[in-house]
Amino acid sequence: MNSGRCAACRYLRRRCAADCILSPYFPSNNPQRFVSVHKIYGASNVTKLLQQLPTHLRAEAADSLYFEAQCRVEDPVYGCVGLIFLLQQQIHDVEGQLAKTEAEIAVLKSQTQHPQAQQFEAESDFNNLLQQQLDNVANQSFSGFK
């Protein structure tokens, strides 16, 4: 144990035992970390959770609790789920842009290979390729929700 109390014991105004389970994950130099976790989960629940985990997983669990608590403080309704949804939406948007770009590249390649092709055919090919790519993206993006 380091000298003094950990952030958890300091916040809870109790003596920090040498075997304090919270001490390694909530050091005294970062009190806000424990305050956020305590506000969302409660000290007792965090202690019980960490005690049930193997020692090698506790640091990762404490980091996850802190991240999720911060997300919940910033967005009380959705928490980290809101962030996950936002990232999934961004992925879907970028996949659509990628499909459109790939369709444009395919049309440009076909135009360079067949310069005598009419503009109407190129536009038709582009629209068909674009629709196929967008259909593929939509099927891939929403296949996880079935």
List the helices and strands and how they pair.
Elements: H1 7-12, H2 31-41, H3 43-52, H4 55-74, H5 80-113, H6 119-142
User: Which regions have little confidence, pLDDT < 50, spanning 5+ residues?
Assistant: none
Number of helix segments? Answer: 6
Helix content: over 70%
Rg over CA atoms: 27 Å
Query: Roughly what is the average pLDDT, rounded to an integer?
Result: 85
Task: Report the span from N to C terminus.
Answer: 50 Å
Strand content: under 5%
Mind describing the biggest β-sheet?
none
Number of strands: 0
What string gives the helices and strands in order? HHHHHH
Structure commentary:
Helix content is 72%, strand content 0%. It is mostly helical and 146 residues long. Helix 2 (31-41) packs across helix 3 (43-52), helix 2 (31-41) crosses helix 4 and helix 5 runs antiparallel to helix 6 (119-142). It is rod-shaped, with a radius of gyration of 27 Å.
